[in-house]
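pasting for ref
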Amino acid sequence: MGMLSRFRRRKTPYAAVTDEERIARYVYLLGSLPASVIESSHATAFADLPAERRRELFEQLRPFMAESERDAASDDPTVLARLFRRAEEHRARRAASASAESTIGPAIVTAERVDDDADRDDLVRTTDPRDGVDVRGMLASTGVLALVANQVLVSSAVTSYYTLGAGSLMIGTEPGWIGDTYDLGSAGLDGGSAFGGGFDGGGMDAGGFGGFDGGGFGGGGFDGGG
């Protein structure tokens, strides 16, 4: 797909894709976008969830809270998006570490046997509680995965990144649906809008442009693995 493809209109409306396709595209963006764009787009998406659902997600993401955030409102979509970003970053680091270990080969582990319950308790206490947080499975289990996926895909933060930000410089190397969805003609910059609204959601700030600050949270499909 050439650079000029950004200026043509899409032949197939974005709204025609299925929930499964939206989720697959959302997972791709999680592994591709800069962290700042991920956080900004999720703040927008979480704001559209019922407060009860936000509080439910917040409780599951508590292991990623900083001490200064202990008193944060449990239904604050901005704080929730920040915690989600940290959780995804942690998941990506663990996946990268596991991949590196599999490349090197089985590790040789030497350890003394755990002979009593006290030693077992010590091992449990040293386990990182963040490892047990499955961020993608969490969205699925609370019934909001499809909604969050769609809201992120149509967010002004993601649209800005691909039409005006760093993503526009590399859009020719992205999957075809990226160019078809976020080309300038369909993004509302020439009077038409692929999403029915153009830039009205604050994606120009809070990291909407993303910059060259990293390549997302790593790949991996939606397999429920945290």
